[in-house]
């Protein structure tokens, strides 16, 4: 009989298992949004197709393992290459379009990928998705190799920590990737190559007048973004142990933009922080036991992201860590 | 191409698909006309437009099912409220942002945020369960050997009637001319002394009303669910772009054509692919001819 | 096409360039030559097609017909970046200083032969990349010094005044070590003192480095006092070509300026 209309469950706050899940998802979004940051924040190309890259990466990997019988560790680089090739294929005709058209083309392409996955039942399992049968011992799963690696890591950790969190290996893999990506991208930004990208972001014609083949650079930026998208797709597949079209809806791309804006344009570190913040915010509301239904809570979370986007864009478009002078949003 | 289809599947099938396509296309066209004017005049890629349609549908639900009034009342209510919704956001969001000199990315992201907010509001009040309007779903009419549901027929007739009215208004009325002038060049219209603020407001009312209607019709044809808005958004964008941004006649025609083409695709590929087909068509069209079938190349 | 100019040693040789927009011929068969080491002014009433001509010969717009030869090599039809790479660099009417980048970055961007601009080299030849980067930075600072912008090197280009931005654009174009520099209204919108400084730079660069300039200009004093040759355009065509004094007295030129809107 609490006098407060809200009740916090303190115990739940310290549930490491729960927060591991949040950190995994945050990490996945960080990876995908880092690619988006390279595109939007540093090259000036407004790419709304990240969810599509995730889907191509995830599905390629799973299909290669399940249908073509490739080893998981071979399927990973193969799937990355496929996704990057896909990115270049999309980019070639569409990068010369003006910004808003490009945005819509990438969004539409991502949807084509998702819908194709939904409908090409033979290849992708359609609406059932590709998943793992845990009961059928003889059935191979696309993440078998990962599972055994994960188990051995956990076995090792058991020497120090009695009951390790099962998601730990995945957490390590994801956040190491995030760290490496942040360092890598940060380094590359300061190079002459990165300088050309920034010039393209500012004023593509000026860059061309100085002898830069801008299409080539934009393609490279998109390809790297596709790589990161594929990685994010892998991690998602490993986390959920299924690959399903519903996990690659445009809302994923929109959330990635939310992360981008929250953390700040032109800041790679900001992406990581933005991802953690956003997902903590979204998932943390689970602990607030509001006297409303499950559905309404879901709606509320959606609304929060929307309000965050609106408020940030209106009052602090550079996000938390973005630099105002580096902003080229108005054009 | 039409002849090839006819040869392949027979006149009856093609005609039936055309009829279905017209029904779908009417909804796209109604949504697209409003969106293209907003896009053309304000350079705003309004991702929330789809949710305007959803809003209209649910407003009609309120009147038609919750309050038990006839659907006609629901339609008017939906159009009025959605129009006002458009107006509200223009005053509260878009105009201040324009005054700040907000750029295209800022506006897009705000419109996405707005789409989220509207959709979650709908989900808050009406939940995620599928709802239906109080319409006749079983009765059908047969003519010339083609079958069409009672509701579908009403949708098509009403939709096309409104579209014709819209076309006339845009073509011949003063407001219509002004809207087109602003769409061509906002600066020029301003220097010519047109009260652009007012025209913009009317454009939002116009776009909102049409969106509301499109939403109700869509809800009548299928059902009501919170995702309705987003599902319709991309095809409507396709129609806007194919018709040439800022060109209401182009949007109207493209919407109808798109609906028909999507339905025709069911004659060639399996029906579940038809939405995919629509998007592929959009991508191809954008790459080949970004200014649309009826548009002129223009800088944003 | 016989004209008064001797095109034997021309660095730039333009012949019969046509550019149409819908039904309008913005450039309707323009032909002229620019000799190496000269400073040439391109003048003409508004709407004569000067900027379109610039766009057409530098690849920013696709010319419909004609020939453009730079140092003997045909460049018509090449993409804009390729034309720039071959040594014909242009500036724009409205300055395009890359505002959200520091001044020195603006400059370093323009330097040619930067291995660091190719992604492969970042991974395979990091030392070469770093070495050249150091060189480029030194060159950039030196050049900024010449233009009096050295103190602003670290500032974002967006914070510079209009006149400073024009100087930056010129300096940046020079970093690219062009054979031929096309300046689209370099004097527009800057005060006379700064304008004179710009002109002095041009003369000095021509003297010391043998650079060639082709610039669009409206100010007759500038044209008369600072150019070796003048090319006059009207209605998309070249109607006169020659020394400044000659051109000024050419009846066709007088007609074009008085007849059309100046």
Give a summary of the structure in a few sentences.
The complex is a heterotrimer of chains A (331), B (300) and C (262). By secondary structure, chain B is an all-alpha fold.
Which helices and strands appear, and what pairs or packs with what?
The complex is a heterotrimer of chains A (about 325), B (about 300) and C (about 260).
Chain A: H1 10-13, H2 16-43, H3 50-66, H4 72-94, H5 99-119, H6 121-124, E1 130-131, H7 144-157, H8 168-189, H9 192-202, H10 204-209, H11 214-240, E2 242-243, H12 250-263, H13 268-284, H14 294-315
Antiparallel strand pairs in A: 1-2
Helix pairs in contact in A: 2-8, 2-9, 2-11, 2-12, 2-13, 3-4, 3-5, 3-11, 4-11, 9-11, 12-13, 12-14
Chain B: H1 2-42, H2 49-66, H3 71-99, H4 104-126, E1 140-143, E2 146-149, H5 150-172, H6 174-184, H7 186-191, H8 196-221, H9 228-242, H10 248-268, H11 274-288
Antiparallel strand pairs in B: 1-2
Helix pairs in contact in B: 1-5, 1-6, 1-8, 1-9, 1-10, 2-3, 2-4, 2-8, 2-9, 3-8, 5-6, 5-8, 6-8, 9-10, 9-11, 10-11
Chain C: E1 10-21, E2 24-35, E3 39-43, H1 50-58, E4 65-70, E5 73-74, H2 80-85, E6 88-90, H3 103-110, H4 119-124, H5 126-146, H6 162-175, E7 180-184, H7 192-209, E8 212-216, H8 220-226, E9 229-234, E10 237-242, H9 244-249, H10 251-259
Parallel strand pairs in C: 3-8, 3-9, 6-7, 7-8
Antiparallel strand pairs in C: 1-2, 1-4, 4-5, 9-10
């Amino acid at each position: 009989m609490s006098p407060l209309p809200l009740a916090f469950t303190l115990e739940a706050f310290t549930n490491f298992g729960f927060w591991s899940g949040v950190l995994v998802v945050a990490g996945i979004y960080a990876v995908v949004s880092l690619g988006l940051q390279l595109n939007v924040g540093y090259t000036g190309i407004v790419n709304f197709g990240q969810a599509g890259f995730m889907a191509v990466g995830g599905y390629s990997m799973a299909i290669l393992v399940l249908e073509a019988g490739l080893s998981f560790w071979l399927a990973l680089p193969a799937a990355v290459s496929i996704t990057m090739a896909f990115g270049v294929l999309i980019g070639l005709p569409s990068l010369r379009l003006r910004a808003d058209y490009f945005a819509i083309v990438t969004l539409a392409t991502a949807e084509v990928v998702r819908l194709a996955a939904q409908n090409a039942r033979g290849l992708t399992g359609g609406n059932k998705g590709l998943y793992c049968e845990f009961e059928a011992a003889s059935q191979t799963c696309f993440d078998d190799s990962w599972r055994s690696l994960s188990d051995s890591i956990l076995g090792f950790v058991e020497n120090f920590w009695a009951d390790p969190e099962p998601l730990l290996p995945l957490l390590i893999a994801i956040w190491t990737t995030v760290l490496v990506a942040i360092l890598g991208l940060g380094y590359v930004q300061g190079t002459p190559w990165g300088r050309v990208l920034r010039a393209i972001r500012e004023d593509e014609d000026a860059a061309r007048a100085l002898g830069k083949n801008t299409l080539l650079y934009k393609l490279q930026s998109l390809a790297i973004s596709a790589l990161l998208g594929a990685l994010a797709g892998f991690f998602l597949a490993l986390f959920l142990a299924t690959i399903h079209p519903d996990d690659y809806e445009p809302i994923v791309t929109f959330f990635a933009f939310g992360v981008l804006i929250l953390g700040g344009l032109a800041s790679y570190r900001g992406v990581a922080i933005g991802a953690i913040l956003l997902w903590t915010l979204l998932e943390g509301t689970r602990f607030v036991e509001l006297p409303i239904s499950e559905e309404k809570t879901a709606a509320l979370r959606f609304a929060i992201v929307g309000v965050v986007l609106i408020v940030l864009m209106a009052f602090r478009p550079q996000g938390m860590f973005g630099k105002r002078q580096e902003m080229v949003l108005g054009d | 191409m039409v002849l090839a289809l006819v040869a392949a599947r027979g006149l009856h099938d093609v005609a039936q698909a055309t009829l279905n396509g017209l029904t779908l296309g009417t909804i796209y066209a109604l949504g697209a006309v409003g969106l293209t004017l907003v896009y053309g005049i304000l350079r705003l890629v309004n991702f929330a437009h789809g949710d305007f349609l959803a809003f209209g549908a649910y407003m009609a639900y309120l009147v038609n099912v919750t309050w038990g009034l006839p659907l006609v009342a629901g339609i008017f209510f939906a159009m009025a409220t959605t129009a006002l919704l458009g107006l509200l956001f223009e005053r509260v969001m878009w105009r201040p942002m324009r005054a700040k000199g907000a750029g295209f990315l800022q506006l897009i992201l705000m419109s996405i945020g707005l789409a989220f907010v509207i959709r979650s509001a709908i989900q808050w009040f009406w939940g995620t369960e599928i709802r239906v309007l109080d319409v006749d779903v079983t009765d059908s009419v047969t003519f010339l050997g083609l079958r069409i549901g009672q509701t579908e027929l009403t949708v098509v007739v009403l939709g096309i009637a409104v579209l014709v009215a819209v076309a006339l208004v845009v073509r011949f009325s003063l407001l219509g001319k002004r809207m087109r002038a602003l769409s061509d060049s906002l600066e020029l219209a301003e220097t010519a002394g047109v009260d652009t603020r007012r025209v913009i407001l009317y454009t939002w009312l116009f776009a909102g009303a049409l969106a509301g209607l499109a939403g109700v019709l869509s809800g009548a044809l299928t059902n009501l669910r919170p995702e309705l808005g987003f599902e319709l958004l991309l095809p409507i964008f396709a129609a806007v772009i194919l018709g040439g941004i800022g060109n209401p006649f182009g949007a109207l025609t493209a919407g109808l054509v798109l609906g028909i083409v999507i339905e025709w695709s069911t004659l060639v590929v399996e029906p579940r692919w038809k939405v995919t087909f629509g998007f592929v068509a959009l991508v191809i069209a954008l790459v080949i001819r970004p200014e649309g079938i009826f548009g002129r190349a223009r800088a944003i | 096409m016989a004209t008064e100019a001797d095109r034997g040693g021309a660095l730039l040789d333009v012949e019969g360039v046509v550019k149409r927009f819908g039904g309008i011929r913005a450039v309707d068969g323009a032909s002229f030559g620019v000799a190496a080491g000269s400073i040439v002014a391109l003048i003409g009433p508004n709407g004569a097609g000067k900027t379109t001509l610039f766009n057409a010969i530098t690849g920013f717009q696709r010319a419909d017909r004609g020939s453009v030869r730079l140092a003997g090599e045909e460049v018509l039809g090449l993409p804009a970046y390729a034309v720039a790479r071959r040594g014909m660099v242009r500036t724009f009417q409205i300055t395009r200083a890359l505002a959200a980048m520091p001044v020195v970055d603006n400059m370093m961007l323009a330097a040619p032969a930067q291995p660091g601009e190719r992604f492969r080299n970042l991974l395979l030849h990091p030392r070469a990349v770093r070495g050249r980067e150091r060189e480029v930075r030194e060159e950039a600072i030196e050049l900024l010094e010449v233009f009096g912008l050295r103190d602003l090197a670290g500032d974002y280009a967006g914070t510079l005044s209009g006149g400073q931005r024009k100087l930056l654009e010129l300096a940046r174009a020079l970093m690219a070590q062009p054979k031929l520099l096309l300046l689209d209204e370099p004097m527009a919108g800057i005060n006379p003192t700064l304008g004179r400084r710009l002109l002095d730079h041009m003369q000095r660069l021509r003297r010391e480095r043998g650079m060639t300039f082709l610039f669009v200009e409206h100010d007759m004093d500038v044209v008369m006092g600072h150019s070796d040759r003048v090319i006059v355009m009207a209605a998309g065509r070249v109607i006169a070509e020659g020394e400044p004094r000659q051109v000024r007295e050419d009846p066709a030129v007088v007609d074009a300026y008085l007849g059309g809107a100046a």
